[in-house]
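The records we work with from here on pair a chain with its fold. A complete example follows; check for yourself that the lines match position by position.
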Amino acid sequence: MPPPPGGYRAPLRYGYPETPAETTTRLRPVRPRQRWRTVAAAACVVLGLGLIGGAATGAWLTGDSSAETTRNPYTTARDAWHSVPVDTLFPRTLQGRGAGPGGTHRTWTRLAVAADSTCTAGLDPLLLTTLRSVGCERLVRATYTDATRSAVTTVSLVFTEADAPGMQALRTRFTEQKLGARKDLMPRTYAPEGTPAASFGDKQRASWTVNPLTEIPVVVLAVSGFADGRPVAEPQPAPDA
């Protein structure tokens, strides 16, 4: 149970599995408070070479009580990386209706959740520099596989230190300069051992997206590839793929 307001919160601990079939780290293994509700979520779907798919989801919570109706969603969401349960940030399964080739439905299953980290530890230096204007509060990542277990996708949520104008400026910059299509700004993979994503490295990246949100201070990144470790000579950004 969460501590009372102003009470002591024990340090988070990581590194133990949720189930024998899944290597994952709980960001906060508690149920959300009943007085909170999920009011919005951001999702991006990555389609690479017409064969692979992935999805990312982020959520933020806001109060239901009338006393909290003016609560700033930016202030609330900035702490979501440790205050929101892992199954809310990274659902165990994701449904992509019409997200596959020919409009087929897709399903992705979570393989693992990485321990939260700094952006320096989880992002390439150039991408880190590109996001420098909004700062980095924390980075959380998870990797998914499709129903065939032949494709894998790493989803990353960068919780920034920016306010609404800062996030809007970053999104405008990405749009006007087409930064999302630059291969040197591709997100890194998260390849947990003992899973279908164990061979998912830089050379296996096939398609990606970088999506700065404007409703909350979060940048959503996703990168997809093949589970068999095959290298991809010409990765494509999600809109082109």
Summary: The chain has one domain: 36-233. The helical segments are 73-78, 80-83, 86-89, 119-122, 125-130, 164-176. The radius of gyration is 18 Å.
